[in-house]
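Database export, one record per block. Field names are fixed; values are copied verbatim from the stored entry.
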Amino acid sequence: MEFLDLPPMLGAAGTVRLPGSKSISNRVLLLAALSEGETDIRDLLSSDDVDRMLDALRALGVAWQRDGDSLNYRVVGVGGPFPVKSAELFLGNAGTAFRPLTAALALSGGEYRMSGVPRMHERPIGDLVDALRQLGADITCTGNEGFPPLHLKPATIRSGGVVSVRGDVSSQFLTALLMALPLTGVETTIEVVGELISKPYIAITLELMSRFGVRVEREGWARFVVPGGASYRSPGTVYVEGDASSASYFLAAGAIGGGPVRVEGVGRDSIQGDVRFAEALRQLGARISMGDNWIEAAAPEEGRLRAFDLDLNHIPDAAMTLAVAALFADGPCTLRNIASWRVKETDRLAAMATELRKIGAEVDEGADTLRVSAPAKLVPAAIDTYDDHRMAMCFSLVSLGGCRVRINDPKCVNKTFPGYFASFAGVARPVPVVAIDGPSASGKGTVAERVAAALGWNYLDSGSLYRLVALAATRAGVKLDDEAALGSLAAGLPARFAGGRVWLDDDDVTDAIRTEASSAGASQVAVLPAVRNALFDRQRDYRSGPGLVAEGRDMGSVIFPDAALKIFLTASVEARADRRYKQLMEKGLPANIENLLQDLRQRDARDAARAVAPLQKLPDAVLLDTSDRSVDEAVAFVLDLVRGRGLAAG
């Protein structure tokens, strides 16, 4: 899909089983490949990044097999450096595969070429390359110095001693060195230059290396000693924890959308630092509970989330979720020490600032900070995702503010969480819509308005919108052939429907839009694409809590295809003509039953023959024939359906 439209949500509650951690999955795969023995890996993440690692390992001579359609794999370790000494590897945008493999291949004594997507070639790797060159590795950056693609050649590796690496750009550089250095067989010390960012990710690396038989001594976070004579040995079976970074979206959904939302697969005993995201939510006032293998979040007892000013260096990936959660806080929020965002799948600081502004937030972007002030009301927007999975997942939370949002390129979530949007739909509760369509004079307007009033929901009389555009244009002095001006007017049309009346701003225009002039004007503006496109979005903006009853053409087929209940309200042409005849007579207007019959038959034929969205009962719509039903009976029929489906209390 090119985009995914998320409707406004009423809230979120439920349980989500998390996919495996990307960080753990790719680390375990590489360690299993370099080990002696076979390793059974359970619950491996199924994603693009992991697929890139699996493909690379196979190309390098590592045998692995998947257990049917499960997420369980068996990897046959090679017990040291890779046996294949020449290979060309494409690693997409998988930093957790590219960086560690670079170090392991540099110490494997072969000739390798490594490349990725264009964005990977913009992500720095120079600090890792420099560290490996200190060991004697022969690595050439074939494009720009300090960036992929890379060409690695056989070289004499210096044994032992001290190697230094910067720690303030990406913790993956240190992870790569730590995981590869046991291949040298001699004791080597790594000294970190500058502040080490993302320390919890190094903790994951050290914990997993220990499980595979290599224990690294460290002095704080500045000096690490990889022992001599150490080699990796399979622990037999390794279970991959659920992804704590992915948990952040659902925990935030619970904190924003009421909750509780529980994530399973990660808990208080997790080795992943991103579980501390739950602590951050607690500081914002969210109610957090935790077990060995689960975490649960719910909204504060009262009010909004609290504004925050936090150093988030320890949870850089999950911190992105807090940037969107700031939209639901009671004041401006500041995220600090997040410079590493700039060298991720995209420049996340710049991208986050740009997209937050689209939905109305005031954003100040610093070198390593982001300050977010929420708007009074969120603005519907199309969110660009920059081929970055976390951008797509973060901005899905905007819908919990009762605001529709479009996610461009939603498939980018395949990098780490291919089923994300299905899981989100499993806990998020859309604002319900009852869409009532049907032929002219079938009574759908009367029924829809009374149903909305009985439920206390919003009501949309879509058929009046073109009349309102024409009326508003006339009052504003806009010519009815000025398509651009009319489209702009339609996009912000201040129309509402209440108490059986139609309002334009604070002006009751119920009668004004029924004049011959408004009818003629409506016909004139209705053929303009800019007006039709603007009203497409404007109609969707009527969807807000607690629910919407929308009547008119195309409501269930085009405007609200995800409507929780679709009604096709019809009646025989004779019954409809008789009703129209009585209405006209009551108003003292001339009427002829035969003319009315002919007019309705011709209109039905035109509607059914429309090239776009012809008038017909949709397969998922409920047929309501009112030929022999009163209005009261028709309203009761619809209300029973609404309450029977659990869309409203009853």
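Remark 1: The two ends are 38 Å apart (CA to CA).
Remark 2: The chain has four domains: 3-18+241-429, 22-239, 431-457+546-650, 458-544.
End of record.
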